[in-house]
Write a structure and sequence with these properties.
The protein is an alpha/beta fold. The chain contains 9 helices and 8 strands. The protein is globular and about 40 Å long.
């Protein structure tokens, strides 16, 4: 889907109702994972430093011990399992108030699993970019494309068979990153197998990464961490 067309949709948010091209679509934008509130409170209790390197996202981010994986003492994990772009926007001030050195963002697969419109997800992405640029202008933001999934495992059916939506969002955020002069890291293409699925080497159930997946991700990030 062309990002120019997406961003010119009539986009109205009121109690979970979106008007897109004249069609009313209702989604639960208030959904938050069960652990969301307590984790946000925990994050707020931690010391913020301008040297922090923040890893922001959902369970795919949350499952890594980034300081150990990257041998980086100032790496901070701000992933929440089940989170969406709406959840990121709600808790973004906890991130930006510390004015971290870098933010690595990977988010959106749970939005797709919950059938949020592509245009809504991309509008949230743009809001995240704008807010970080305004609230923490010296922070370097790195947007990571959404990883592929592999339906052959048959575990996370709500996340499977939505490959075109993943491609739509990834194409959209590439253009948004260029528009807002944000660095984009294309994880998607580097985790594919020959059948355009998440490579089984890197996962045990078709959605989340295993230890080899995280090692591969860490190698991709090395040049962005170093500079």
């Amino acid at each position: 889907m062309n990002i120019t067309k997406i961003l010119h949709f009539t986009f109205i948010f009121l109690l979970g109702t979106f008007i897109i091209n004249g069609q009313e679509i209702k989604i639960d934008t208030t959904y938050r994972p069960k652990t969301y509130d307590v984790q946000v409170r925990q994050f707020k209790s931690y010391l913020n430093q301008s040297t922090d390197i923040i890893f922001l996202g959902n369970s795919i981010t949350a499952r890594a011990h980034w300081n150990e994986l990257l041998r980086l003492p100032n790496a901070k994990n701000r992933g929440i399992s089940g989170d969406t772009t709406f959840g990121i926007l709600e808790r973004l001030n906890e991130i930006t108030e510390g004015h971290p050195a870098k933010i690595f963002l990977l988010i959106g697969i749970n939005d797709i699993s919950r059938n949020f419109p592509d245009s809504a997800i991309l509008a949230n992405y743009e809001s995240i970019m704008r807010r970080i640029g305004k609230e923490s202008p010296n922070t370097k933001l790195y947007i990571e494309t959404i990883l592929p999934v592999n339906s052959s495992f048959g575990v996370y059916n709500n996340h499977y068979n939505k490959d075109q939506h993943i491609l739509n969002i990834n194409n959209g955020i590439k253009k948004l990153a260029q528009k807002h002069q944000v660095t984009l890291i294309d994880l998607y293409s580097q985790f594919l197998d020959e059948e355009e699925r998440l490579n089984a080497i890197y996962t045990d159930e078709g959605l989340h990464l295993n230890e080899k997946g995280y090692e591969h991700w860490a190698k991709i990030l090395e040049p962005y961490i170093a500079h």
